[in-house]
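Cast an eye over my tokenised protein here and flag anything odd:

===
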Amino acid sequence: FVSGDIGGSVSSPTGSFRANLSEGRIGPVRLGHANAAAEVTEARTARFNAEANPAASNKRGAAQVTPGHLRLSGVIPLPDAEDRSVVVDWSVQDGGMQLISALSAPSLMQGGPVEWQEGGADITLAVRGTLADPVYDGAAVITRAKIVSPMLARPLYPLNANIRIQRNTLYADHFDAKCGPRGSIKVRGAVPVLQTRRNGGETWEGLVARADVQGGIRAEATGIDVRARAAYSGRLDADMVIKGTLLEPEVGGSLRLSKGTAFIQPNANQPAGGAAVTSGDAASRAGSGAVGFGNREAKRGLAGFLQRSTPPGSPSAKGDKGTEERPPLRFRGLRLIVGPELSAVYPFVLNFGVSGEVEINGVADPVLIRPSGVINFERGDINLVATQVRLSREHPNRAVFVPEHGMDPTLDVSLVGADLRALVQGKVSNWADNLVITRGSGAAVAAARAGGAGAGVGKVIGGVAPGDSSSIVGPSERDAAVAEAARIFEGQLAESLLEQDGQLAFSNLAASTVATLMPKIETGGQLGKARWRVTTAPSIPGLLSLDPSTDPFSNISQINLGSDWELMLGDSLQATMSRKLKESEMQTKFALVYKLTDKLRMQLNSESSTETRLLFEFTTNTNSSGGNNDSGKT
């Protein structure tokens, strides 16, 4: 039922509004009763009050939640009111938290609402003072709450908290939650709700509050199992410190991602127009106040409504425009630690093992953020259907972040395949301009070091290198480079997709995809200068056969475990063994590389289906493992 009336004059209207709702629903929450009323008075103030009560659940097996309530009432001056005082009261009790979670949908990006399933809650918030200088007071007591989030593999239960707001300072006296058998969250400390305006001298109460918030709020998370769809799935450990204010926080401390998978989303943070934004563009954008999105986010809720209601002539509206447009979230020395046991994956194409540490500073914006650090690519491969390449074990594969380049790190990656090598040394935004492709026999390429036929950092690579027809270098030869690369991949694609009689090779095409989908088990370690790694993956003969009478699962003994073994003793000796299913037979490859001198090394290759070969390699480049040196000849 809805009713209302309008009165007054055109320049100074008045009116009232009343609404009653029965048998309603907000998302999945059924309402027992809800009513609201609002009035615009002749004194140019808005009076309002609203109350909603969720219905008691009568479903068998459902968690029993006390119905509780959600209430909001108060008086707020309109922009042309003479009296600027504010009176607002808000309270939530028990089941009223279900209404809060339903009204917040969609929350947590595309994850859906956070669902309050059970527990006790008694929350109050009072706002007094004026629009220019509001004063917040309140308290929240939560007991044995159970909260479900699509971002977490397990619910938060039990959650107990005791939080209060005392004259614009938030105190987290007690906040503890369990998340699964080993996960936990703990929050302690204090932080101002907003920047207070000092009129005259400082009061004793203000001095005490300033002392309380010196350490900020410390949030610790241990063993949290995160399930952020299409972004990250794995373990989260954090020890973060939040300073600044509640509306404009500064986040520091450490955050570790481990034992999981981070999914790569190409161009997720790339600005419209396709090119990376330079540091000069970012500074121009920051100076012009173009990051107004943060201002929007910071002013959601009651505090934002109060500040937006401030008329242009009031003192709070005459502040610095640059400050007003400042994004709400900033990072100050936040250490992002990656690994151990973390993989970066682009489904069906790329799978890299990553580790490292990056320190993050600046505004929480893809253009204005300032990271610094190194992410190492420990292992991995890329499946391009036509060819499969893997990270060279002898190259320092990594991405280096520097503050001046923002989210555009410098890559130093070497990939080797059956008969080609690819070396990328340059920024991610223009990696194709810094690509070297070297073609040769499988044994020679697998044995070549990253810097042997490569180029130094900073060189723009494309064309054909003089004196070396197998390398693609030189910016003036870009067309030739593209044509040569296309020719290489065209030949390999034809071999992958076509049989000898010209028919489509469905088994070859499917094998590339199935090999990517098969689970892998990897382990490794280090003892002194010796490093070792073992990778195993199952293979099923006949799985891709087109013969309908073939049942690949008829005998469990048909499942074989392919494996890769690697042992390195310092920089002098490296031994690898690979045992994989090829067509219907298991084939074993063995390689032993011994470094005789800085310029000479020996390689022994043995394959079950071919003869054993002994190779000697000589290079004029004595620093071939670094990848940042001038090119040498082999």
